[in-house]
Amino acid sequence: MATLSKKELSLIDAYWRAANYLSVGQIYLLDNPLLEEPLAADHVKPRLLGHWGTTPGLNLLYVHMNRAIRARDLDAIYVTGPGHGGPGLVANAYLEGTYSEVYSDISRDTDGLRRLFRQFSFPGGIPSHVAPETPGSIHEGGELGYALVHAFGAAFDNPDLTVLAVVGDGEAETGPLAASWHSGKFLDPERDGAVLPVLHLNGYKIANPTVLARIPEEQLADLMRGYGYDPHFVSGDDPADVHEQLATELDACLDRIAEIQQTARTGKKKPADAPAWPMIVLRTPKGWTGPAEVDGQQVEGTFRSHQVPLAETRTNADHRKQLKKWLKSYRPEELFTDEGALVPELAALAPEGVRRMSANPVANGGQLTRELRMPDFTAYAVDVPDHGTTSSEATKVLGEFLRDIIKANPDNFRLFGPDEVASNRLSKVFETTDRAWSAEIIPGDDHLAPDGRVMEVLSEHLCQGWLEGYLLTGRHGLFTCYEAFIHIIDSMLNQHAKWLKTTRDIPWRRPIPSLNYLLTSHVWRQDHNGFSHQDPGFIDHVVNKKAEVVRVYLPPDANTLLSVTDHCLRSRDYVNVIVAGKQKALNYLPMDEAIAHCSRGIGIWDWAGNTDGEPDVVMACAGDIPTLETLAAVELLREHLPQIKVRVVNVVDLMRLQDDREHPHGLTSRDFDALFTKDKPVIFAYHGYPWLIHRLTYRHTNHDNFHVRGYKEEGTTTTPFDMVMLNDLDRFHLLMDVIDRVPSLGSSAANLRQQMGDARLAARRYTREHGEDDPQISDWTWGAGHGTADD
Amino acid sequence: MATLSKKELSLIDAYWRAANYLSVGQIYLLDNPLLEEPLAADHVKPRLLGHWGTTPGLNLLYVHMNRAIRARDLDAIYVTGPGHGGPGLVANAYLEGTYSEVYSDISRDTDGLRRLFRQFSFPGGIPSHVAPETPGSIHEGGELGYALVHAFGAAFDNPDLTVLAVVGDGEAETGPLAASWHSGKFLDPERDGAVLPVLHLNGYKIANPTVLARIPEEQLADLMRGYGYDPHFVSGDDPADVHEQLATELDACLDRIAEIQQTARTGKKKPADAPAWPMIVLRTPKGWTGPAEVDGQQVEGTFRSHQVPLAETRTNADHRKQLKKWLKSYRPEELFTDEGALVPELAALAPEGVRRMSANPVANGGQLTRELRMPDFTAYAVDVPDHGTTSSEATKVLGEFLRDIIKANPDNFRLFGPDEVASNRLSKVFETTDRAWSAEIIPGDDHLAPDGRVMEVLSEHLCQGWLEGYLLTGRHGLFTCYEAFIHIIDSMLNQHAKWLKTTRDIPWRRPIPSLNYLLTSHVWRQDHNGFSHQDPGFIDHVVNKKAEVVRVYLPPDANTLLSVTDHCLRSRDYVNVIVAGKQKALNYLPMDEAIAHCSRGIGIWDWAGNTDGEPDVVMACAGDIPTLETLAAVELLREHLPQIKVRVVNVVDLMRLQDDREHPHGLTSRDFDALFTKDKPVIFAYHGYPWLIHRLTYRHTNHDNFHVRGYKEEGTTTTPFDMVMLNDLDRFHLLMDVIDRVPSLGSSAANLRQQMGDARLAARRYTREHGEDDPQISDWTWGAGHGTADD
């Protein structure tokens, strides 16, 4: 028996035609939206900017999901991998009324249709992609590869949600997408929702066939089975036939999902029974229902339908005629009333209220965001009896705070990391939770469980993508990563930052929790992995994004890390990058001072300098290792050149260095000058590439006196102190820099400079002989024996 | 019948034990390499930096490959996915003699052994990974994900080569690796060599089990079949049993490879018969043959063997005792002579000369590099009768040059791109070649063939990785990509740049062809894709790399693009980034001037300015669109404020802006001042993020007068001129900037400023009304009607 009655099939097909009509209308028409007049050149847009090829397939899936939503009262969203199919998603949001609700000028009548068409890819209008402006979207889909991973991120901790994830066969060739299929092993059918992937094989990319469309179907089925899915195939180019197949297979898939969830949720499932989730392979022609042939070349069913099949509709009457025929082929007169509204019989096919995929609050996650329940971070403070005399592993301390955040927010916060949570010394979290793992578990495994709150997979792409999906649907999280390898997701960060920037100007989009990074195992302490693991450049990448979106923090010790993390986790709509060490390092500030310092973001450390007045030199530092080396240099300076007045400035919030016209955290000229003077040398020890400090400070008065040391791409497998020496960031070199910059110090300084050079050579010799740093250097603490302890 | 005779098995096992012994020795021992004395604390390294877990598996595969190489006279290299297994690859290079050939101090005796052990992960010694310092390596393996794609890159156009590609099961979780399996569809069994992937399932990452080790074996087999392979399984923890299995399956795989190649090369194969290539799944314990248990916890066969199973061998006598037992378990006395040389019976197992995988010249590709045969690029010049009056599509012109390079170098050059070669207007190349494609080909396909020289797949990771493998083995190539999405491979660029930097200091490593990028479809002309496709930040990322390695070029038109590309393709050991437009744009320079301009890299365009002497303002520009807007602004300036003396400086080679102490291409202060003056305002229109210009120029005298316009992260789907206006880079705004910066211009300037503001509003209004730019703006050419044409 057929799944669809004749009547249902006819209605579904009509709804699909309506969506296709509106899609073509958006790409082509400036006016005359219902073709009530003869189609004239000036009814057509002068520049045709849009993508037709993928759109009919997206529309097809939308209307079939609508049927399923109504039939099952499904709570569902639609993630569009081929985001350039924007016209289709806009069309559907319009057809079901959401579009007019959020954009009141785009009304459900002829005038609204005109505006809907005109605004698309038009100056002052809307983008061509499934952008933040598109209701129901959590995924712009411009940079391909992240549809499936976003879908899984949305499904985590949303047990009632079904995410339809359309994966284009172009996108399927990307690395991140290829890895994303494995996400099922990290999804708990009991506590998480479901993802239904649809691999849409329309066969072509911009100019080429796609790999997965050109391998034998049995090989493709093997691939999907290998990824852990049970593939359901739907193929054809006859609409009625495809409608029937798709309705049948979609029902089968949703039945199977319900069954898997039912089994899991009624306690019948053993953890190791990883189910094969259903997925759909939909094989339909690219540019389906569009012009079969243009100027003698086949277009429908080929890569030539990728963008605009008819390119000269403004100037070429034949093309225009063909456009009209194409539009008319959808029989708009059957679909829309004379006033331009969807006919009621079709309007009734859409789900209602928040069941509409375009109006599901999950896709405007800020609406659903619950505040994190935050334990008092000061309760985790390390005791700091004196500045810089005791040590902690900062991230290990943070682990206790994170543990209790996880405990207090059992369905609202997750920790993400590429197999590095333990390596990054956050293992305390495993006192309260496990790593999410729905594949096989064997004796001896360390904290694995299907409902674990720690997401670990050796893929920065998956960590980032899951977290993005989780945040975009209103929940909270933290991504902890080796500093060097966070570059793997540079481009994903770009896209998320662009999303955040854009949503700030969309009133109906509510703020979402910030994207928080904890970068550790950083450039200065990759002792055992060496050069390939040494790269602090993610900060540089991030600060290229819009100033109102990005924040960078370099807490120098455990208490400042606690304070900064608390701040970041409470924030909204930012990208927060925290860089902190995991190795044993000095505690500089007791908690009260840490809080004060972090809330200023930058400040003078009076206890470290030797003057309350105007200094001869400013020693500035940002980052744990630069702070250590700066203080050690300051101590040497105070011992050997006590006549020099030195001020120590520590920077936690890097954006404080910028001009207040450039960044909302930026300092005024007056405040900057008060810290760094107007004319004194500033020796700045910085965690990353030194020129970033110049780029941030170049507008400030005293910039020409800034002398910055940082990572200059020198490194290997070696000791910590050898690393700083390789990059001239060591205490001895910093002191040499002071001597070189402070005028007229006389001959004692020249001798001291020589001594410092000798100390460097001795340190290198020691290291190469013993294979470890001289303990006099590595065990250094503030004030030990040099009479500079806090008084 | 067994594949291995008892004698063979025993020898192979002994060789494996020798490699394992040397691996453990490197990780632990400072001295007493053959345990001739009792093992004392100071024989052991104070800091243990290395990774044991993966190493025995790598050593196992090495000795078995050696057997196959000798038996078949194979030309083979070994790509080590788990690059942290460095001790194993170093051990094998040492065992077969290569190590001592390239590092004469590491001799094949006890003294050499001592040095071999000591140098590993030791200050002043060698890195812990399979770094450039390791003979036979083309793959550092620190950032995981690229083993397989590098292997394929090496195999292309090397028909006699077999690349063993070991993929760790951790690495297998990454996106790039997951996509890499599909590389087989782009390999021509007739003209390319073979890749034999080994998926090494040792079951664990740093702290977690691996996904592929925990799915049912049948699912894994499906996955491999789905990827297009015929999997051969080898599993066990009994060495003798595993030796026999591995020898048998390796033989079967190599037989099958020979058969596929034979079929393809004797013309019996139809293009569509994509063969299932063999691959091996090797399942052996992590840390195999290491300590089974330490301090009561299981170590062998778990994630606890990832790094150093015994962590306290210096301070804990029990650990040291266990280390001794572990080392002795390999029975070194059977493996090495009293003088510390490998016993002759074992030494005889290694292949000889260049058949040794550590000595194969393919893995030191510069040795094999043949010069590209370069047609004369000036033959492709566009005719430029007057500066800036005619138009070309620069990349389309370049396409002709590339076509003929491909033609002249049929086995030595490839063009790589993520489905964008046609979109980037390089289609002329298809007059001489096709896209590489070994999957199904159907009628209507556009230039697909197994032996195509254009590598197109929708994965920037694969394009980059294939090209890296191709370059590292001594061939030439060019990667053309949308500018925004090249960020996808930021981290891969990092690793390649680090490789290039390191090899400069390794005398036996020969220079290899440069890594060349052509970035087009750039930020200013993403009219139809909008914000997600707009990002010029790759340049910023690249300039963080070591100055001696990176070069960035912004040719403003077709002839300069030809000249720059010719230069880049001839170079060695650089990363060259070329950013150029693909849209119709003005031709500024005839070829002779283009050559002169490009060889200087920066220069005054006399024809555009109105003074030979000291100017009142310098209008500088870098990039095609900034050059266009600058010239249009200059023309307005010359028309409306003819009393102002303006100089136009165009920058092609971005690194010329830096100080000569910072970059080898940098200008001296004197030269910089001669171009930019010491004190006049400089209005700089730049292609990318404006602060990069500040970062490059901050050391120069006149820096404080630099006023830079560029992309400030504002964009959407809109017209070209609207894009430049959104970012204040338009001609009108540049002129306003001049007025704001040149002192005492009087009231006529104030009026002009107002006019310019009005012109911006009018332009925006026009665009929003018509959906395209005002033709007066978009059709602008130099000198048209304003009396500023060249005279």
Explain what this protein looks like in three dimensions.
The first copy, chain A, is of the alpha/beta class and 791 residues long. Chain A contains 25 helices and 22 strands. Chain A has a six-stranded parallel beta sheet with strand order 12-9-13-14-16-15, sandwiched between helices. In chain A, strands 1-2-3-5-4 form a five-stranded parallel beta sheet, sandwiched between helices. In chain A, α1 packs across α2 (55-72). The longest helix of chain A is centred in the first third of the chain and has 27 residues, at 239-265. The first copy, chain A, is elongated and about 95 Å long. The termini of chain A are far apart. In chain A, 66% of the residues are buried. Mean pLDDT of chain A is 96; it is low at 785-791.
Main traits of this protein?
homodimer, 791 residues, alpha/beta, 6-stranded parallel β-sheet, 5-stranded parallel β-sheet, Xul5P/Fru6P_PKetolase_ThDP_BS (chains A, B), EC 4.1.2.- (chains A, B)
Give a brief rundown of this model.
Two copies of one chain form a homodimer. Chain A has 791 residues and is α/β, with parallel strands linked by helices.
Helix and strand topology:
2 copies of one chain form a homodimer.
Chain A: H1 6-28, H2 55-72, E1 75-80, H3 86-95, H4 98-102, H5 110-119, H6 147-155, E2 161-168, H7 175-180, E3 194-201, H8 217-226, E4 229-235, H9 239-265, E5 277-283, E6 293-294, E7 297-298, H10 317-329, H11 332-335, H12 344-347, E8 391-393, H13 394-408, E9 413-417, E10 435-436, E11 448-449, E12 454-456, H14 460-472, E13 476-482, H15 490-503, E14 515-520, H16 538-543, E15 550-553, H17 558-570, E16 575-579, E17 584-586, H18 591-600, E18 602-604, E19 617-622, H19 624-640, E20 646-651, H20 669-676, E21 682-686, H21 691-697, E22 706-709, H22 720-726, H23 731-741, H24 747-770, H25 775-778
Parallel strand pairs in A: 1-2, 2-3, 3-5, 4-5, 9-12, 9-13, 10-11, 13-14, 14-16, 15-16, 19-20, 19-21, 21-22
Antiparallel strand pairs in A: 6-7, 8-17, 18-20
Helix pairs in contact in A: 1-2, 1-3, 1-5, 1-9, 2-3, 2-9, 6-14, 13-17, 17-18, 19-23, 23-24
